[in-house]
Amino acid sequence: MLDLRPPLPHPPAVRILLLSQFFEPEPFNKGVSFAKELQLYGHEVSGLTGFPNYPGGRIYPGYKLRWCQKDVNDGISVTRVPLYPSHDRSALRRIANYGSFALSSLVAIFCLPRPDLVYVYGPPPTAALAAIGLRLVKGVPFVLNDNDLWPDSLDATGMIKSKRLLRLIRWGVNWVYRCAAHVVVISPGYRRHLLDRGIPPDRVSVIFNWSIEDVAEGVVPKPRRPGEPFVIAFAGNIGPAQNLDVVIDAAKKLLTTAPDIRFVIAGGGVDQPALAERARAEGVTNIEFLGRIPPREMPAIFNRADAVLVHLRDEPVFECTVPSKIQAYLRAGKPVLIGVRGDAAAIIEEAEAGFTFEPGNSDQMAEAAIRMRDLSPDSLATMGRAAEIYYRERLSREVGTVAFIKIFERVLAERK
Hints:
Strand order of the largest sheet: 3-4-2-1-5-6-7-8
Number of strands: 14
Order of helices and strands: EHEEEHEHEHHEHEEHEHEHEHEHEHHH
Number of helices: 14
CATH topology of the largest domain: Rossmann fold
Number of domains: 2
Largest sheet: 8 strands, mixed
Structural class: alpha/beta
Low-confidence stretches: none
């Protein structure tokens, strides 16, 4: 397809290394698509990552742990290094997962051609260890794109309960922030947290995440027909942070008050089996668990849905979190029901793309679902169009890439 975007002024080609524990074929939106977008502006891009195992904690079929496997993913050269695969509730196994990648990538990064700049994606912030090593030894700057406020999120989800260990993690993460030439975060609230930790304001920027945009290809508006169920879909990770027990509670209430409303849950995670068993045991027949769905199959889920759902635990740390599913929902042009306080709810309200409810409140969730169902077809369609327009103008990959390139160029100019 002919690319009509205006050229962005930039210096000669910059060699950029994308360093992330996660990469395609894992559900990840800052890998191949980001690299190819950077290439459109003349930059040379490669990747350093682990072997795919998220979210199930098992190495994907077709891959086998080995040292420094070289892949070419849609024209992007990617080096994979070994790690301990795990994404369950065990804090020790999660530490082994994060720590093993940090150490293997630290060794591997010195075996690769020297880049001009390293882009580090977190979580986990431990992925930055290799970039810190390269900076100390060879003076290569790195930009950290942090998506999860540690240790606050670890405390909120109960992953780590030791206050002493949480304080140690806070010290370590603050050290990573100070080593970075620039830190990019995903919300204004997140930026305020970093400023409170003493990170200089001119070294922290907000760039909202974008969606895996191909996921929305093939999504079409769904006209509401009389007599059909009103389907509300949730797509994504199912763990302690999402607290989807409240969805089962709301669905139980709606069995009697609005039996035509149905919930479809697409995704995997540590809580998914227990939630599916609870719904079955309690006879909650208006909720369906589909398991993990590959990103390329998500258009079928979106086309089935009249509205979509976002929910997180009612914890202060999540007030500055913008779950990546929000961007996917907006890109797909779907009205949103959101039970999250703070920055995430502000996006939906500003976009006029849905209704908010108090997180953890099943009564309010049920009421919001009924309110959404009772909208006219024209009102639902208007809300969906507003969602898509807001995404295109404020949150798209193209908008985000331009913002990143400006930061990369500023960092390199300061180094010179």
